[in-house]
Structure formats: C-alpha cells, structure tokens
Amino acid sequence: MKNSVIKYGLYGLFTAMICFLFVLWFGQELSYSSQEVLGYLTMIASLSFVYFGIRHYRDQVNNGRVSFWKAVGIGVLISAFVGLGIGIVDYIYTTSINPDFASEYLERSIETMEATLSGDELELKKAELTRQMEDYGGSGFMAILMFVTVLIIGFVIALISGLILQRKI
C-alpha cells in the first residue's frame, strides 16, 4: 500500500503543482471566477490519481482485491499529497510571485459588488468581505485552506473510487 500511495501521491502532487502554477501565472488576466474554475479543474485532474492509485493497489499489489475502507484510506492519503502540492504552490504564489494577491482580490471583489449592489447592502457586504480578508487573508491560512479543500474533494473522490473499485474475492 505504501508504495502505491507514494507513487500516485507524487504523481498527483507534481501534476497539481505544475497545473496550479500554470493557472496562477498565465491566468492572471482572467477574471477571478474563471481562475476559480480552472483551479477546481486542476484539483480534479490532480485527484484523478486517487482512482488510478487505488486500482494499481488492487490489481498489481493485492491480487485483485481491495476493501471499500482500504480503498478510501489509500485515496485520502493520495489526496493529502495533492493537497500538499497545491498548498505549497498557493503559499509560494501569495508570498513571492504575487504578494499583493489578497488586496487585489479584495479590490476586484468590491468592484464587482459595486456593479451589482447598492446602498446599505453594498456597504454591509464590503465591510464583511474586508473583515474576512483581514482575518483570513494571510498566506499561511490560505495555503491551509487550499489543502483542506483538496482533501475534502479527494475524500469524495476516494469514496466514489472505493465504491467502484472494491472487490473481495
């Protein structure tokens, strides 16, 4: 199990790092909603190694058998590698490549709000978003948030993969 997790976890980690850096670096001119969609597509593409890692373990290591919970465990561990890769890239991006990301995000979000909201609702939403960015806008927190997000998505993919790939002979 250990070798399958490490092998497919590293595949996912490097895929995540390369794709996420590509999206962050070359997608800077895109809207934040487009960047978000590309970010989630990167996560899902990188987490596809969960399925392949479980299948490899079942077919090549464990004589064609894997229980549901063993498959989920393998999938979650592979997901942790992917989350680590995305978290590292997010931290590097927000500290070195674009250290003004949080303020730029806040500014663009407020511009979007101003185009769609008005009056007291606008002021309330602006204050709420500004407070959230001050409370949670640090690079370390954002990297941890990305790791947890990937882990949650990876858990769901591991559950689905476990259901598909479980085989008790």
Automatic annotation (TrEMBL):
<keyword id="KW-1133">Transmembrane helix</keyword>
<keyword id="KW-0812">Transmembrane</keyword>
<protein>
    <submittedName>
        <fullName>DUF4199 domain-containing protein</fullName>
    </submittedName>
</protein>
<feature type="transmembrane region" description="Helical">
    <location>
        <begin position="37"/>
        <end position="54"/>
    </location>
</feature>
<feature type="transmembrane region" description="Helical">
    <location>
        <begin position="141"/>
        <end position="165"/>
    </location>
</feature>
<feature type="transmembrane region" description="Helical">
    <location>
        <begin position="5"/>
        <end position="25"/>
    </location>
</feature>
<keyword id="KW-0472">Membrane</keyword>
<dbReference type="InterPro" id="IPR025250">
    <property type="entry name" value="DUF4199"/>
</dbReference>
<feature type="transmembrane region" description="Helical">
    <location>
        <begin position="66"/>
        <end position="93"/>
    </location>
</feature>
<dbReference type="Pfam" id="PF13858">
    <property type="entry name" value="DUF4199"/>
</dbReference>
